[in-house]
Here is the input.
Amino acid sequence: MNGMVDKNYSVMFLDVDNLKQINDNYGHDVGDKVLIEVANVIKKNVRKSDLVMRYGGDEFVVVMWDCDLKSAKRTAEKLLTEIGNIRINDQVKISVSIGLSKGMDSLEKSIMMADRCMLEAKKLGKNGIKSDFQ
Here is the structure.
């Protein structure tokens, strides 16, 4: 494919809000539980054909193949709600900021755009979704 990919996909970039503070306030064991719970919710709410990756310390990327933008946004909204319902030790509330990008001519470009959108969601107050399409 010469580095080109089919553009009929969407990318979701998720960042766990305030993970450093959770680690500082409750310990790294609790922070690890947060990451495990978030990963479990993501895997439970995306299709088997979707690619789920831990991208960094508190970041996850989901590549949703054959997924239109409306479906991607619906999935992101569901994840925002489901992750918001997680409680660790009945005291730690979890939220994520999510960036969405439509498929571009390279997966790398799509991930970079979704990352930029996630940063915008953080700037807007966290616990939200921002996309390169509206």
